[in-house]
Amino acid sequence: MKHFGICFAAFSAAMMLSLTAYAQFGRPAPASLPEGFVPSEANLSGSLYPAVNPKTRQVIFQFRAPNAKQVSVNQSGKTYQLTKNQQGVWSVTTDPLEIGFHYYTFNVDGTDVFDPNTESFYGGSRENSGIEVPESKEEAWYYHFNKDIAHGQVRHCRYWSEMNGVERLCRVYTPAEYETSPDKKYPVLYLLHGGGEDESGWEVQGRVGDIMDNLIAAGRALPMIVVMDSGTPRSFGASRAKNGVDVTKIFVDELMPYINKTFRTLTDRDHTAMAGLSWGGVQTWQTVLANTDKFAYMGGFSGAGNFSGPGAVQGANTPETAYNGIYKDKDAFNAKMKIIFISVGTNEENPVRETYKILHDYGIKNMVFYESEDTAHEWLTWRRSLREFAPLLFKTK
Amino acid sequence: MKHFGICFAAFSAAMMLSLTAYAQFGRPAPASLPEGFVPSEANLSGSLYPAVNPKTRQVIFQFRAPNAKQVSVNQSGKTYQLTKNQQGVWSVTTDPLEIGFHYYTFNVDGTDVFDPNTESFYGGSRENSGIEVPESKEEAWYYHFNKDIAHGQVRHCRYWSEMNGVERLCRVYTPAEYETSPDKKYPVLYLLHGGGEDESGWEVQGRVGDIMDNLIAAGRALPMIVVMDSGTPRSFGASRAKNGVDVTKIFVDELMPYINKTFRTLTDRDHTAMAGLSWGGVQTWQTVLANTDKFAYMGGFSGAGNFSGPGAVQGANTPETAYNGIYKDKDAFNAKMKIIFISVGTNEENPVRETYKILHDYGIKNMVFYESEDTAHEWLTWRRSLREFAPLLFKTK
């Protein structure tokens, strides 16, 4: 909910520091941590553990459970057994982990429990613990706070949804200049989270505020509004875990009118984009390709309208037939869609690679493929994807 | 982080429903819950438990831990032992609880753990589980979403703090008309959380957005900006749990200039107020009474600059000597402070009662005392306190 991360204020100064010193920007390594380890950025302020070694990328997990018989930690599908010391504190030092943000869960005698030492992150359809394995300082600048630039805001907005029969919460990033340019209108990127996550994902795990602030301040991206809503239609008693439902109607008929009424937006298709990660990529394809009069840009981060695999276009697994044959008139389609962005982490198996190739070979233009080095089906892939995607937006004539 | 509560859209219709039907506004009672019980409003959507009986105010807690020997739940200082069924699910039905929002924690064989079925609430210096025991519909209207009124936003803003050496996160409520009246400036209420909580408290547990939206729409409160920052000065490695530190300098020298630079504010003392709950009330007295040139209104909800008890004015426990003798020139003080609001729940012991009496008897004017019926040192007392306090603000000539 409330990431209060490390600061990259003096980023240029940071460039001159060693890797170890860099990690200490967040919190200095207290004397009581083993040599080379620092508290994870995702920890509550003051919590030493989990601790991470930025050089080796190993993590020490700790959990106090004096009376437990067995404690393990599950991190990105790999399970480590912890061992208990005389004070009843269990701990383990992991193998080197992948860089980036990871969810994790302790298991105490068969029951999953959270780590009370980290912030809370909604993922896996519940509140979860999280850890940051830092990457090199040259890479990490864009998702950290820089005190020397102007900062936008992430606004929590609620609107009534007749379709859901409840109020819905969306988060809206507005760039810093939105406050000081009261007559200017802005293009809009609709940005979706993944399965089992919610509208908090991009603000907290995704650090959308820092990414957009940094890209805009660096002149790489145009000032824009970013709208993050829940990709899950909700109804009384229905689970937020119900992934995979098409949100096209809610987005187009309820969310977009609400946004255009409430914010100073450029509402034409040339100034409207949609992107999503994982299942949110599938939802992006569903929504945009059914509404090409409203969107000219789309992105799928580790997820898209695939021809095979989970979320594949039902009963239409060729470019000729998919999405009611929209790809078939290539000239018309290529004239319409200004950017089709597809990305994936090098460490994940994902049908989006095939999707890109099929569409590219079929003759779809304006496609951009980005591969994130050394990252998995996790948030660092998606932070980087936004860093690559946002600069492409709203610039094509 | 992300309260997605029940809807009071059809509030007038709700008035005609029975108490049981009312509670079903949030989520209908699924067949699998015992007669009379409904999921708590604070649950993740789809979670049946904890379940609450709005009539009897009893709660059923459940926790799955097949291999545990003992599971208990601590709710507002009272501990209940749970018993295990054949599926390894522990449960207990409590005595009638007090109305309102309560933190709670499970204890499994000696280790505190959260309930994976509720939203996450920062309190007690960590993420916590929470439950809502609903009060009568006549009382609860003001902190629920009403689809028939205009809604403000809660903006998450970050600013650089030289004093802390880190960025700080504040949340800023802007009224609905802030978006549509670009030339209008607004008064500001600085609103503090309590010990062990943070800047998320008033948005999530406190439901500040709904309270302000409803009061403004009803014509009871003037449109105003509400600023919620952390009452904890932070530094690298320092715990958020470090309560009780004076935030006067950060608020006056860093936060207020940031707010006045970023938002369209009325900056004079007649349009600036501060209030806080519990320890935030103590901090309010510290800040306002050292800066009466900047504030004309102050409120202490279950906390204030007391003459005895925790947070009592150090070495100055009489009205003559407290706060450098500021009360002593009564005429000057009474001319300056337009409202001094003190509140408390009927079910809590609290020195603010004495504080009110001492100041009142001493001759301090413009004091308002409010007692919240049947509530404790908890968030329902403070939601009600804001409901009573906000309408008093910025109206005195």
Q: Briefly, what is this?
A:
The structure is a homodimer of 397-residue chains. Chain A contains eleven helices and 19 strands.
Major sheet summary line of chain A: 8 strands, mixed
Number of spatially distinct domains of chain A: 2
CATH class of the largest domain in chain A: Alpha Beta
CATH superfamily of the largest domain in chain A: Alpha/Beta hydrolase fold, catalytic domain
Descriptive notes:
- 2 copies of one chain form a homodimer.
- With 397 residues, chain A is an alpha+beta fold.
- Chain A has 2 domains: 111 residues, Immunoglobulins (Immunoglobulin-like, Sandwich); 252 residues, Alpha/Beta hydrolase fold, catalytic domain (Rossmann fold).
- Helix content of chain A is 22%, strand content 25%.
- Chain A is built from 11 helices and 19 strands.
- In chain A, the strands form 3 sheets. The first copy, chain A, has an 8-stranded mixed beta sheet with strand order 12-13-15-14-16-17-18-19, with helices on both faces. In chain A, strands 4, 5, 8, 9, 10 and 11 form a 6-stranded antiparallel beta sheet that branches.
- In chain A, helix 6 packs across helix 7.
- The longest helix of chain A is centred in the middle third of the chain and has 15 residues.
- Chain A is globular.
- The N terminus of chain A is likely disordered.
- At the A-B interface, strand 9, strand 12 and strand 13 of A face strand 9, strand 12 and strand 13 of B.
